[in-house]
């Protein structure tokens, strides 16, 4: 998979409340 996409997804996940 693309590292860029992984990093972006992780950033979004961290930003989103859970």
TrEMBL record:
This is Clathrin heavy chain-like 1.
């Amino acid at each position: 998979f693309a590292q860029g996409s992984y990093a972006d997804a992780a950033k979004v996940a961290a930003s989103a409340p859970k």
